[in-house]
Amino acid sequence: MQVLDGKALSEQIKEELKQEVDTIRLAGGKIPHLAAVLVGDNPASQVYVRNKVRSCEQVGFQSTLIRRPADVSQSEILDIVKRLNEDPDVDGFIVQLPLPDHIDEDAVNLAISPEKDVDGFTPINIGKMTLGLPSYLPATPNGILEILHRNNIETSGKEVVVLGRSNIVGKPMSILLSRKGQPGNATVTMCHSRTKNLAEHTRRADILVAAIGIPEMVTADMVKDGAVIIDVGINRVEDASRKRGYRLVGDVDYAGLEDKVSAMTPVPGGVGPMTVVSLLMNTLKASQR
Ligand code: GUN
Question: pLDDT tier at 289 (50, 70, 90 boundaries)?
Answer without folding.
Answer: confident
